[in-house]
Amino acid sequence: MFLHISKIFYLVIASSWFKQFEVLKMQGLGLQSLKKNPALIPLYVCVAAGAVGAVYYMTRLATRNPDVTWNRTSNPEPWQEYKNKQYKFYSPIRDYSKTESAAPKFEDKVW
Fold it and tell me: 28: phi > 0 → left, psi -120 to 50 → alpha, else beta; which?
């Protein structure tokens, strides 16, 4: 039987991939191992809480930060809307609704 070079290459790659997959099956990451080692549960909870917090913070930055523009046609300069709004995550010192912004207002002027 004559096998084409690409089929041989595929068989070699597939067999090595399956061997790597067997190595990648890590013991200790399933429910059975959690039942045997309940001390790992706080570790899993902390890692999951950190991942959820990171996703939440990145989503908040992408949607609330005035430097980010998702639609340039409807609002080409979103930072103009945030003159007196609080966009920082937490600021115990300042109330942004009462302070006046020192930033200049940029307007489109035709010279």
Answer: left
What are the sequence ranges of the domains in the chain?
5-71
For residue 13, give every residue at least 6 positions away whose Cβ sits within 8 Å of its Cβ, in sequence order, or none: none
Q: Could you list the pLDDT tens digit for every one of the 111 residues in the chain?
A: 555 666 665 655 666 655 655 555 666 677 888 888 888 889 999 999 999 999 999 998 888 777 777 877 877 776 667 666 666 666 777 776 676 666 666 666 555
Instruction: Tell me how far apart the alpha carbons of residues 12 and 67 are, in angstroms, rounded to a whole number.
Output: 50
CA angle in degrees (0–180, nearest 5) for 35-38-42: 130
Q: What is the pTM of this model?
A: 0.50
| Angstrom distance (rounded) from CA 75 to CA 60 | 19
Distance CA 40, CA 28 (A): 9
In whole angstroms, give the CA distance from residue 61 to residue 53.
12
